[in-house]
UniProtKB/TrEMBL annotation:
Pfam families: AAA_33
Name listed for the protein in its UniProt record: Gluconokinase
Matching PANTHER family: GLUCONOKINASE-RELATED
UniProt xrefs under NCBIfam families: therm_gnt_kin
Length: 180
């Protein structure tokens, strides 16, 4: 499936391994900016969810259609304004796939200690991703390189601190909390 890349960066990808708070931060950015929030987890086919719920990591082949569905949803939503989306996007090639559909996008990468992330995952209720999969995600994680100009944020900080860092780094972004 091929879509035309956007000419302007209307999307902010909030990426990282499971349990880093991608959805929390992307949702808060959308609320502050008046944009749209999308969670890539909502676009996983049932087979992917069942696979992960069984404690099995996804293969690259299992991710391609999912990434395409996420990119298409972001592209459609960006027709009405900025989109902030939470997606693991662990490998550079996954982010390249998203960029092939969307064009340039801002990237915020959430990182933290293995212990902190595992504790957060253990505290979550009703999520399909078991804590057992954290190790496989950390193994394949490719932090964004200089070519991606990503903002790296440590999740040991409170969400408000992370949001402040993002807003300061993305000059011109409306993070006033007014939703305007």
């Amino acid at each position: 499936m091929v879509t035309r890349p956007r000419k302007t960066p209307a999307a902010t990808l909030v990426m990282g391994v499971c349990g880093t708070g991608k959805s929390t931060i992307a949702r808060a950015l959308a609320e502050r900016r008046g944009g749209v929030f999308l969670d890539a987890d909502d676009y996983h086919p049932l087979a992917n969810r069942d696979h992960m719920a069984a404690g099995k990591p996804l293969s690259d082949e299992m991710r391609w259609d999912w990434l395409d569905a996420v990119a298409n949803a972001v592209a459609e939503a960006s027709e009405t304004g900025p989109v902030n989306f939470a997606c693991s996007a662990l490998k550079h090639v996954y982010r390249d796939r998203l960029r092939a559909h969307l064009g340039p996008m801002k990237i915020v990468c959430l990182t933290g200690s293995r212990a902190l992330i595992a504790a957060r995952m253990g505290a979550r209720q009703d999520h399909f991703m078991p804590v057992d999969l954290l190790e496989s995600q950390l193994e394949i994680l490719e932090l964004p390189g200089p070519d991606e100009a990503a903002l790296i944020c440590d999740v040991a900080q409170a969400p408000e601190q992370i949001l402040g860092t993002i807003c300061r780094a993305q000059e011109g972004a409306d993070c006033s909390g007014t939703g305007a």
